[in-house]
Amino acid sequence: MIQLNEITIKPLEQKDATFIAKWLSDPKVLEYYEGRDNPFTINKVYEKFYKENDTVKRNLVLVNDSPVGYIQYYRLDPEGVKKYGYNDNELIYGLDQFIGEVQHWGSGLGTKLVTIMKDFLFNVLNVDRIVMDPQAWNTRAIRCYEKCGFTKVKLLPKNEWHEGEYRDCWLIECTK
User: Fold this and answer.
1) Which range is the signal sequence, renumbered to this chain (predicted)?
2) DSSP letters along 84-130, please?
């Protein structure tokens, strides 16, 4: 568990699936994460977020003890290292997140959350580089990540299937 002021990041538990299902069936959230044509049922949440032997560290985000979002981090696998053009001698982690309670959008929570996780990955897990690949049209998320010290590295054409088409993404990174 990671806690700083009002924000807590805690490992995802079985009982948290209802929050994920709620958020990932909201068209406002789905517009940015997974796609409005891809709503999640509780069974789909269990299939995607509760895999055995998964190396992804999945977490619930709370503000003042109320669930508001999701964040995950993982070591980039050799395929990802190659895809993004990095070398194998660095410890590189990927990061993905969303704020599921839309009333928190635009409040600065995303910036606080990414900064907390960035500090944890650099200072506790001692990673060399953190990467993300937001869709290029998602300017609000990209601005948030840039505020947290991430920079655009390269455009990834047709990188992610979203709402019926492959979308361009930016590879962004932050180093120590």
Assistant:
1) none
2) HT--TTS-EEEEEEEE-SGGGTTTTHHHHHHHHHHHHHHHTS--SEE
DSSP state of 101: S
59 forms beta bridges with 11, 71
Confidence (pLDDT) at 54: 82
Distance CA 147, CA 126 (A): 21
Q: Are 161 and 133 in contact (CB under 8 A)?
A: no
> Residue 21 contacts by C-beta under 8 Å, 6 or more apart in sequence?
40, 41, 42, 44, 45
Q: Considering the domain delimited by 2-131, tell me its CATH architecture.
A: 3-Layer(aba) Sandwich (3.40)
Instruction: Supply the DSSP symbol for 5.
Output: T
Which residues of the chain have a pLDDT value below 70? none
Return the half-sphere exposure (C-beta side, CA atoms, 13 A cut-off) of residue 80: 15
Q: What pLDDT does 51 receive? A: 87
Number of Cβ within 10 Å of residue 52's Cβ equals 4
Parallel, antiparallel, or unpaired: how do β-strands 92-99 and 129-132 relate? parallel
Amino acid at 17: A
Enumerate the domain spans of the chain. 2-131
